[in-house]
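Submission checklist for the structure archive. All mandatory fields must be present; incomplete records are returned to the submitter.

[x] Identifier: Enoyl reductase (ER) domain-containing protein
[x] Organism: Salix udensis
[x] Residue count: 378
[x] Sequence attached
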Amino acid sequence: MSKSSSSQIITCKAAVIWGCGEPLKVEDIQIDPPKSTEVRVRMLYASLCHTDIIRAQGKEDPLPLFPRVLGHEGVGEVESLGDEVDGLEEGDYVIPTMLAECGACENCTSAKTNLCLTYPFSLGGLMSDGTSRMSIKGHTLYNMFSCSTWSEYMVVDSKFVCKIDPSIALPHASLLSCGFSTGFGAAWKEARVKMGSTVAVLGLGAVGLGVTEGARMQGAAKIIGIDKNIMKKDKGLAFGMTDFINPDEYPDKSISQIIKDLTGGIGVDYCFECVGAEYLINQAIQATKEGKGKTIVIGGGIKSVKIDYFPLLSGRTLKGSIFGGLKVKSDLPIVLEKCKNKEFHLDELLTHEVTLDDIEKAFELLKQPDCVKVLIKI
């Protein structure tokens, strides 16, 4: 039941995809009122993440679901809310999150993980009760993860949103709901990069640049950025990168060997794979120090990987990460405070902007070498 007077079905525009590889169509959809623990949000901005592209193409998607409204990064204003929602009011600005934090389960009380057991990470595309709050022409519409941000309105469980200070630039807030925060958290919370250490970052998109910023703020002495796009060099330097590698300039050397050449032959303390490629995961492991090197895998898009065994046997660690190890209630507010205090270089990420009606252009813009992040104005 909704606390608010606005408890009617809303018809609004959303970017709908009807099947793997099909174009997005901006169509009228229906948004139900929020149930008891949910909020309905009027979206203001969204952004495009690599994971959205994977879902749109249907490639390596563990659970392809259609028709669907994509988008999991965004920021909006609470329009109405259920009667059991605490800590939020109509008019509050919020960002959606793919994870929740109950604060009481075994995982939430552990410093080792951010994956709540009470409200688990879901790929099912539906609300916790197994239904959807979106429909089109009589068809159920599936969410991206916990919600769908490429829509004028969306419904999300209140446990999967984070209230933000209205003084934070809204385009910046959209970036913090996944990509940049995932990278920053991976360096800060997942790897816990130490002062004076060495770091390599494979892929300098929004996630990789978040890793770079996090490693810089943690006090890393050397941060090596690796990307085939030479235009990412200036972006990396702005976020704290100390060395840049374009693998295409070294046709006779592996990426791991180039990294070792920059570190006296021993490799780095931490390597972050931000692309999601089997070859790069193995190169990341081999680029770290024998006996104690740590590789953090953040890139999505692969179902299975064949790992070279001996580098792991030699004492290295391989660890996966979702949302950079950030706990939504405990850690994300700290990230938001840093954003409010302008400690991040987020303007460097926002290279292009489109409207919801022109969202198909966003996929083309991402192919341009100077594009890092596309903002969707809703």
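[x] Structure attached
Curator remark: The chain is about 20% helix and 25% strand. Residues 206-218 form the longest helix (13 residues).
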